[in-house]
User: Fold this.
Amino acid sequence: MMTSSPNLFCWRKGICAFATSVVAFFCFMHAAAIAQETVALNASISPATPQPGETVTLRISNDNASAEALYFYGAEITYDAARFSFEGITAGDLMGENALEIADELDENTLGASVVRTSGSGAGTGTLAVLEFIARPDAAEGDATFSFSNNDVRDTAGQSIAAAAPQPAEIVIAEGESFTV
Assistant:
């Protein structure tokens, strides 16, 4: 009959503690890797030189092909409300078919906008949100900028995903045509 000595028991206990520590370390590293996931936000605007009265489309997209578990995007968008009027928001392809979207004026020149999936999660590159504005009929010609602040990107567990704000989208309002009656 084999008996365990106290030293052998301590040695086995030490191996178990070491193995538990290794497993915990790798679980922590995996969780940290997920938490450090980033999206590469990009804003594009078209047309680049609208005329007064023309619709302007602002697309917010993710350019990081390895991004996973995208579930929510929200931001504040600052623009010149004297030159543009906000018309609406539509969820992009990364947000799925039944996504919810909401946008409203926070103050005279700032719009709060967000989109959220209703199931599953988005992965890879694609569009998060599409916002439409109209260049006001009396919009002065020249440069205009749409800038972003308070960007918030979340995964399916509600955890924040690192994302730098998109670079401001710049546009030039062209001289409008005038008619004499």
